[in-house]
């Protein structure tokens, strides 16, 4: 399985992080009823992201060899984005998510 991690501005749709275009080290896990994303990245690469940290959406696209791509959209609330300069680590906490397969969703609309 191939995975693409995206962090986008919720209003403008501008991508701040897109591992499909520029790789970064990241990990994510569910902790109780939240999802925690940890990204190893230099502050210079995300300075613009930090200006909009209360208006972000996170996506994970999971691409399988013999199945349609599964997309997961994570909702990021206020005060859910932190950056540690000492560790060079961005942390994003999402309170909820929705997973869907676009091909199945669009077929239900017809």
**Overall tally of structural domains:** 1
Q: What is Rg?
A: 14 Å
Q: State the distance separating the first and last CA atoms.
A: 29 Å
Name the shape in a single word: globular
Helix count from the secondary structure assignment: 2
How does this structure look, described?
With 110 residues, this protein is of the alpha+beta class. It has one domain. The chain contains two helices and seven strands, in the order ββββαβββα. It has helices at residues 43-51, 102-109; strands spanning 2-9, 15-18, 25-31, 34-40, 56-63, 70-84, 89-100. Strands 2-1-5-6-7-4-3 form a seven-stranded antiparallel β-sheet. Strand 3 (25-31) and strand 4 form a beta hairpin. It is globular. The N and C termini lie far apart (29 Å).
Looking at this protein, list some descriptive labels.
7 strands, 15% helix, 110 residues, seven-stranded antiparallel beta sheet, alpha+beta
Topology, please?
Elements: E1 2-9, E2 15-18, E3 25-31, E4 34-40, H1 43-51, E5 56-63, E6 70-84, E7 89-100, H2 102-109
């Amino acid at each position: 399985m191939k995975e693409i991690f995206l962090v986008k501005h919720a209003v403008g749709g501008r991508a701040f992080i897109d591992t499909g275009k520029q790789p970064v080290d990241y990990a994510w896990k569910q902790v109780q009823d939240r999802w925690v994303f940890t990204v190893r990245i230099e502050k210079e690469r995300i300075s613009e992201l930090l200006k909009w940290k209360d208006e972000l959406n996170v996506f994970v696209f999971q691409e399988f060899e013999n199945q349609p791509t599964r997309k997961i959209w994570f909702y990021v609330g206020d005060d859910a984005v932190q950056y540690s300069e000492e560790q060079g680590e961005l942390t994003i906490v999402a309170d909820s998510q929705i997973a869907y397969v676009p091909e199945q969703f669009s077929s239900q609309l017809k």
